[in-house]
Amino acid sequence: MSLLDAYEKTKQELNVTPEKLTEITDHFVSELNKGLSKTGGNIPMIPGWVMDYPTGQETGDYLAIDLGGTNLRVVKVSLLGDSKFTYEAEKYPIPVPMRTGKSEDLWNFIADSLDTFVKKHYGSRGSSMAKLPLGFTFSYPASQDAINEGVLQRWTKGFDIDGVEGENVVPLLQDAINVRNTPVEVVSLINDTTGTLVASKYCDPETIMGLIFGTGCNGAYYDVCKDIPKLEGRLPDDLLKENSPMAINCEYGAFDNEWAVLPRTKYDIQIDQESPRPGQQYYEKMIAGYYLGEVLRLILLDYYSQDLIFKDQNIKPLQVPFAMDTSFPSRIEQHSAPFVEGLFLDSFNIKTTEEERNIIHDLCLLIGTRSARLSVCGIAAICKKRNYKAGHCASDGSVFNKYPHFKERAHEALNDIFQWNCDPKDYPITLIHAEDGSGVGAAVIACLTEKRLLANKSVGTIESKL
Ligand code: BGC
């Protein structure tokens, strides 16, 4: 077999046809419903306890933190009403060993960063002032019986810290904050997708869902309380009477963990088996930023083992797991084939021929296209489930923002599923860039929660203390 033959085979394997997209989407719809049922399913479908649509008129000052896959962000948000806001944010990179380190190190790191931020932005007023309300964006699957709690179901995106799964993370953080006497109280815990949904709806009423295509992938949308069978018998009367909406954090990265429809390749299987949580997040492991560079690396190692590429070279640096993050395929696609030469020399001390560079470039195109096409199955499934015929899908995350052509490819795939067959600029359902979910979204949610509490409205199940 030649390198070109091997590439052609990979091309077949990574191709997702319109028929496959439709098959996946239909299965996805039934899995979303299963997740809301009493027995549950693979997709957690977590009620996020946001039971109001923002009007754009919310006002007030809030703090927010976002524990994502790569950075901790601390944000000071002022909601000004009229869909307007201002904010100041700081990023604190999460040290890589912390992802698999000790629980207390993580909470101490967050509390220290928060303390530094409060001192810098509020100065000496810090310790004497009333406690600042904080919205905590925790971008991992966390079960919630109320807006101010979140029990981590399992780590994703390469995190693996003992002693946190099964725990309510709000007191873990609050205790670390209290030790430092930082005047902050965690009032709400939200997922990044729920934040994205609410922040975008604060600014754009046509928003129908909030999506993250970043280190991980996930989506949130508004359902209706009475249509959530697993909450039957657990909902306070006011929510039932008012027929309240309910934001749902789907956690659909876990779609198809039983592997019924996804066109997984041997590379996807290997990524899963070598991950800290095999058997979980099958969908996410095929499309999210944490894994796209790894797919490319595994394909290249496979070709190398067949003596098809990098012949007679020492490729040790490339044999290190996750040696290429997603910026590799993304930059290669952006800069075209000749860019591969310097990149592989500088990063791995590997020389490439022109044919190899062209093939590596084309592989990046295939990996990015597969990611975008599979990504829209979650969107299409939510639209089918809620019968949305038009609207804006507020999207954020490094893959959406940085991987070349993601949006165009996603739109093309949506058209493959819905067969609009009109000019792309007239597609009724489109991906648009989201407002800052973890900052503005967390602030709007904290504000909506305060209002509900003041009005004596529920913000959790009948068993919750709120
Ligand atoms: C997490 C979700 C999160 C998504 C995007 C996934 O790995 O489970 O909670 O929304 O990544 O950040």
Give a summary of the structure in a few sentences.
This protein is an alpha/beta fold and 466 residues long. The protein is 43% helix and 17% strand. Keywords: ATP-binding, Glycolysis, Kinase, Nucleotide-binding, Transferase.
Topology:
Blueprint: H1 3-14, H2 18-36, E1 46-47, E2 59-67, E3 71-81, E4 84-93, H3 103-122, H4 125-128, E5 132-138, E6 142-143, E7 151-152, H5 169-179, E8 184-190, H6 192-203, E9 207-213, E10 217-224, H7 237-241, E11 245-249, H8 266-273, H9 282-287, H10 289-305, H11 327-335, H12 339-348, H13 354-386, E12 391-396, H14 398-402, H15 406-418, E13 429-433, H16 437-454
Parallel strand pairs: 2-5, 5-8, 9-12, 12-13
Antiparallel strand pairs: 1-11, 2-3, 3-4, 6-7, 9-10, 10-11
Helix pairs in contact: 1-13, 2-13, 3-5, 6-16, 8-10, 10-13, 11-13, 13-15
- Major pleated sheet: 6 strands, mixed
Number of strands: 13
Q: What helical percentage do the residues reach? A: 40-55%
Residue share in β-strands: 15-25%
CATH topology value of the domain at 47-206 and 217-253 and 435-455: Nucleotidyltransferase, domain 5
Strand order of the largest sheet: 1-11-10-9-12-13
Oligomer: single chain
Helical/strand content category: alpha/beta
Radius of gyration: 23 Å
Per CATH, which architecture of the domain at 47-206 and 217-253 and 435-455? 2-Layer Sandwich
Report, as a whole number of angstroms, the end-to-end distance: 65 Å
* Distinct helical segment count: 16
Q: Any ligands, ions or cofactors bound here, and which? A: beta-D-glucopyranose
Secondary-structure element sequence?
HHEEEEHHEEEHEHEEHEHHHHHHEHHEH
Please identify the top-level CATH class of the domain at 47-206 and 217-253 and 435-455: Alpha Beta
Q: Please identify which CATH superfamily of the domain at 47-206 and 217-253 and 435-455 we are dealing with.
A: ATPase, nucleotide binding domain
How would you state the average pLDDT, rounded? 95
Detail the poorly predicted runs.
none
Shape: globular
Domain Hexokinase C-terminal: 209-447
EC number: 2.7.1.-
Domain Hexokinase N-terminal: 8-202
Keywords: ATP-binding, Glycolysis, Kinase, Nucleotide-binding, Transferase
